[in-house]
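Predict the holo structure. Ligand: guanosine-5'-triphosphate.
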Amino acid sequence: MGKKSNSNGDVLQSKNSTCFIGSSVIPLINKLQDIFAPLGDIDDRLTGLRLPQVAVIGSQSSGKSSVLEALVGRDFLPRGTDICTRRPLLLQLEKRTIGVGDNDSREYGEFGHLPDKRFYDFSDIRCEILVETEKEVGVKKGVSDKQIRLKICSPNVLNITLVDLPGITKVPVGDQPSDIEARIRNMIMSYIKQETSIILAVSPANADLANSDALQMAKEVDPTGTRTIGVITKLDIMDKGTDARNFLLGKVIPLRLGYIGVVNRSQQDINNKRSIEEALAYEEQFFRDYHVYHGLSDRCRIPQLAKKLNQILEQHIRNVLPTLKTDLNSHLVAVEKELRTYGEALESNAERGAMLLNVLTKYSEAFSAVVDGKSEAITTKELSGGARIHHIFQSIFVKSLEEVDPCEDLSDEDIRIAIHNATGPRNALFVPEVPFEVLVRRQIARLLDPSLQCLRFVYDELIKISRACETFEMRRFLELRRRLEDVTARFLRDGVKPAERMITNLIDMEMDYINSSHPNFIGGTKAVDMAQMELRAMQEGDDADKDPAANKGHKLATVAKFLNGALPSQVGRTQSDNDRVASVGTSTTRTWGVSSLFGSRGSSVGNSSKRHAAEVVHDIDQAPPVIQLKNPPSILRPGETETEYQVEIIVTKILVTSYYDIVRRNIQDLVPKAIMHYLVNHAKRHLLGTFIEKLYRENLFEDLVQEQDEVVTKRRRTVEMCHALQQAVETLDEFVADISTQRSSDSMDALPKSSYLSSDFYSNSRS
Ligand SMILES: Nc1nc2c(ncn2[C@@H]2O[C@H](COP(=O)(O)OP(=O)(O)OP(=O)(O)O)[C@@H](O)[C@H]2O)c(=O)[nH]1
């Protein structure tokens, strides 16, 4: 302290340091920043420390730049009797902390348009502002709303933004357009209407104060006066015999935050290079000498203006402190939560073993929970876990089997050939059993593929479930995760084999023994009755309509009716019916009661053959010419007409459909049971045991429960952050208590009650 400001960039340190903006706020901010420093970049997020910007407005040459310079304590702005500020100057003061080993504590300025250039000499800054202004708006007093951004970095400033705006003018001069007044007013309005701006409304005392442009504009945007400070300049050059006492007392235009009268450097002082310190001393002398201002010491001089501004800024900080604490606390909660995700650090092998067992148990439990639909993570958006398995069984497997028509790929021709082949060299006397068995076995064999597919689907689901059960510890231990996945996949694969064997056996069993005594089987007698009805219906259809296509359609429709309707009625069949069917079905003829119907035709065919043979012998005696037979073709098909074995074909179809239906129901029931028993429930029962057998070995503990380096680092950092935040919360509490005590003893009475300071306006501004 005590060093004089100079143009070669030394740190500004004034003996009267309290007179600069931020002088009393900087210690508060420093303290807060000390609190937040250990948190690294967290303070960027705590934007509550952002201070309101200060906008200086007033008519042309009213002394705005002079006030701003005096507040900052540096000579760097163009000033003069003519229009000087022709573009808004956004002055960002930035506190620059000097790093360890960094001896360069010089202040410097940096322009937004020249980002890589540092200006250590502040008179160069002034020149650059002039050059940049002229570049944009020429030399002839033109004005632009394009900002010049200047950052002043120093260890001794507050992070705050000050805006120097062009002065309000009424008569256009030079290059100024005819609507210059409106333009400048709009430009000023755009800055001061922001609720986060503190308005310094500068009015020169040597003009008509009651008609101050600055006060008028400020009133428009801040009618309650909660963020406007009136500044009256040029008290030293008022007309002799006049003074601004009543104005400063607020008797002319009342203003909630009041007025401050100041004396800046005159043009002559500027020309004579009078320093800011000298100017401040002169100002002090002025108010001492002018008796009219005695008793108004709290409303006069630049240091009082700085003090008032500082009080506003301090109050702003006090207002945001509770929010800062809330932010810190919620951040602390978030960090603690993050820390929990990393889990405890594991030091010993015993701890690793316990962790491993815990992970294995949790994983197995999660697997069972998902299968049973008891998982906490159950979604309401789609089916998951066990519900998907149920869907596979009922909506895919069972439903698909329901839709299969067992006679779909059996043409009449197929059945006729089967009957021929089954009767060998003889003609068929009765409805033979063999074609039915052959054909029904063929249909039963078709059930194997969908059953195995169902098993495959369920296996896939279990794999999906196993992946969905990943606990957060598994994300910590990658090797364990890999091994768990391996073991689970192999375990489930192994579970597929017995299920597959059982399903194959079920189908084999069904194929191996066709139980024609099954109580739900339609039986031969009933099948023949139905076939005859069918045939009659077909013949009536034939008579009514000779069209063969329509006839065929009729046949199909009748069979379809049977498929849909006839079978359920079998369930209600009486025991005597069943006994009758069984006795017929197991009789030595094994014709299921159809012999009487077809026997006569078979025997008449036999008699006719005998008669033909006698006639042939008789004819040979008379030595007729040799009759040459055609060679049989290599592929032989029955030569008779399409109507041959018509009843037998229908009977066979009815029998196949009836029996197939019984088997289908068995398979629809037993395949899901086999899959559940051998695969799903087996997995639930034995997954943990398998894990323990394969993975819970002491020599594997270290490998399996090995954390990633990244996790270790993150945990360490998070622990540090946690401590820093806890510390910050504590220190902040102490800080709040300190400044509350300080506040009660402070002279805050200088500011009116329910003013800007006590409003929670700035706590809103944080958002
Ligand atoms: N005697 C005296 N002169 C002052 C005072 N304040 C400012 N001046 C002079 O008035 C002139 C204008 O001052 P500036 O600070 O440039 O005013 P401004 O409002 O920034 O001007 P523009 O930006 O051009 O509108 C300069 O010559 C200053 O030296 C003061 O309190 N007393």
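The longest strand covers residues 197-204. The CA atoms of residues 245 and 293 lie 6 Å apart.
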